[in-house]
């Protein structure tokens, strides 16, 4: 795929950064998309900018809209972010940090950009192993969106090109994702995962996302380079 353009959904977290690094290693020119959607952890956008610069992307757009108008999530509403949950609790059910239809919205923007620049490839850091139970991170969802995408675009209907949704991390554990990124030379000190950051730029260390991240580094035998308040 060397020399081709690809769209990468770049949140600033471990998964999206690693997916972007994989795309870059394949020789693709990266067009990154990040989103300011009223999220509690808007701090992640600073990391998205740093990762985009580190990977020398071809373009980086930050799109603004406000999902607080819809709410229904601890990330966009006045709902407390769960802290200190056990691995069993994290692995069961859909948590209150799930943002209704978020990945569908993100991928729709990605699809629009892909059609605009003539790209057939969208990279998405979805993972269905070490994740917090989000329904829009599953393979069935990704393949369904891909099918819809090729019915919904001018290029798809005219048969000029077919969009492919790439989810290279889908079946990896968090430790495997981190090990892959380190082998690719990715600097995880630039990334951000915490859902409820402190004002002094430390991660809380106790939300589900922090716990999954910390466990991933521990199992990978690596040191997490970001600062934590508690873990």
Query: Which shape, going by the Cα principal axes?
Result: globular
- Terminal CA distance reads 41 Å
The appropriate CATH architecture is 3-Layer(aba) Sandwich
CATH homologous superfamily name?
HUPs
Helices and strands, in order, run as EHEHEHHEHHEHH
Mean of residue pLDDT values: 93
> What characterizes the major β-sheet?
5 strands, parallel
Strand content: 5-15%
Helices, strands, pairings?
Blueprint: E1 5-9, H1 14-25, E2 29-36, H2 44-54, E3 59-64, H3 87-90, H4 102-117, E4 121-123, H5 139-152, H6 154-157, E5 164-166, H7 174-183, H8 208-220
Parallel strand pairs: 1-2, 1-4, 2-3, 4-5
Helix pairs in contact: 1-7, 7-8
Can you give keywords for this protein?
globular, Rossmann fold, alpha/beta, 8 helices, 231 residues
What does this structure look like?
The chain has 231 residues and is α/β, with parallel strands linked by helices. The chain has a single domain, classed as 3-Layer(aba) Sandwich (Rossmann fold), CATH 3.40.50. A five-stranded parallel β-sheet has the order 3-2-1-4-5, sandwiched between helices. β1, α1 and β2 form a beta-alpha-beta unit. It is globular. The model has no long low-confidence stretch (mean pLDDT 93).
Provide a short characterization of the protein structure.
The chain is of the alpha/beta class. It is built from eight helices and five strands, in the order βαβαβααβααβαα.
